Amino acid sequence: MKVFHKLPCAAALLLLALSVHAQSSRGLPPGNASSVSLYGIAATELVHVTNVREGANLGSTTRLENSKVTASRLGFIGSEDLGGGLSAVFNLEMGYSLDTGNPSNATTFFNRSSYVGLRGGFGTLTLGRHWDVEDDILGRYFVFAGYSAFQFSEFGGISETIPNSVKYVSPNWGGVTLRGLYALGEGTAGHTSEIAANYAAGGPFEAGATWRVQHDAQGRATQLATVGASYLFQPGATGSWRLHGGYAASTPDASIGVPKAAAYDIGLVWAPPKLPMNLTLDYVARDQKGTPDDSSFVRLGAEYFLSKRTALIANLVRMRNEGSASQRFYGLGAAGYDQNVYSVGLRHAF
């Protein structure tokens, strides 16, 4: 731990890569056919945001930010053929802020994932820190890319990593894939149970559903259920069109004292003919049951691909808060205040 504390992140990761390459020189037994890949994303945006509350101050701000559309990351992924159709697999991934060079999480180095497991005819079983099953499938039905329903306070479970968890992904059975995750809730955290099913058979229609129960340290449960679908219209003279929609319901234990809530997302992704770009338009709403404190936003996003790995990105987002709602994308938020976001940026994948 002292080495990682003293070395910059890049140097620490380089040492890890070198240690993998040099394992035979340390006297470890040679394995079967294996592979390890380094991958990542470098992305940043110039962002202007209105009604940002920082402490007692409320106003507009312009800043260079780590991209909210596609967060910068660095990772290792690998596998080893164990024979008989069985493989060992692992993934280590950390997020970082490109604008500062700092890790995106000051206390968790591989904050985006860190797991090891086995893959075979039975599916894939892994142990460690995982993205939840909602994140696995809902990106086709909810708009992701940072400005999403998971930014609403009740719906972070649509996309988050869960430590101390065991995850299973089934084989693809005629387009149907099942997923399950259980987090043991070590220390002061409560345990989490999740299941999901998704249908994607290579045709124009896809659909999925998830269900989660998350317990807090006192054993109180909050349920999150989601369902979504998308349809890809046959590309034609006007390009490619994909319509998607999603619904999520949050039901906290009555003793928590937090209202039930629902989130809705309907969106359209358009790839114009003869242009290397995508345009997305989404309307996302949050309904807090029994109160007037609802929120919604409209997001228009664009990606222009300079190559297969590099793209220019832009966003226009308008968040509306009704009553005492204080949902936000930047800062702390302010009750009843709207927030507008304008951003342009550059993303490179490697």
In short:
By secondary structure, this protein is mainly β. The protein has 3 helices and 17 strands. The longest helix is centred in the first third of the chain and has 13 residues, at 9-21.
Question: What are the key terms here?
Answer:
Porin; globular; 350 residues; 55% strand; mainly beta
| Structural shape | globular
- Strand order of the biggest β-sheet: 1-3-4-5-6-7-8-9-10-11-12-13-14-15-16-17
Number of helical runs?
Answer: 3
- What is the third-level CATH name, the topology of the domain at 119-329 and 339-349? Porin
Biggest sheet, open or closed, and with what strands and sense? 16 strands, antiparallel, barrel
CATH architecture of the domain at 119-329 and 339-349: Beta Barrel
CATH class of the domain at 119-329 and 339-349: Mainly Beta
Sketch the topology as an H/E string, one letter per element.
HHEEEEEEHEEEEEEEEEEE
Number of separate strands = 17
Which structural class fits the helix and strand makeup? mainly beta
In helices, the fraction of residues equals under 10%
* Strand content bin: over 45%
Rg calculated over all Cα atoms:
21 Å
Spatial gap, N to C terminus: 28 Å
Low-confidence stretches: 1-28
CATH superfamily of the domain at 119-329 and 339-349: Porin
